[in-house]
Amino acid sequence: MDHFLYRDGVLHAEDVPLSEIARAVGTPFYCYSTATLTRHFRLFDEALDGMDHLVCYAMKAASNQAILRTLAGLGAGMDVVSGGEYMRARAAGVPGERIVFSGVGKTRDEMRLALEGGIRQFNVESEPEMRALSEVAVRLGVVVPITVRVNPDVDAKTHAKIATGKSENKFGIPISRARAVYAEAAALPGLEVIGIDVHIGSQLTELEPFRQAYRKVADLTEQLRAEGHDIRRLDLGGGLGIPYTRSNEAPPLPTEYGALIRETLGHLGCEIEIEPGRLVAGNAGILVSEVIYVKEGEGRDFLILDAAMNDLIRPAMYDAHHDIVPVVEPAPGVEQTAYDVVGPVCESGDTFAKGRMMPPLAEGDLVAFRSAGAYGAVMSSEYNTRPLIPEVLVHGRDFAVIRARPTFDEMINRDTIPEWL
Ligand code: LLP
Question: Is the whole-model pTM more than 0.70?
Answer without folding.
Answer: yes
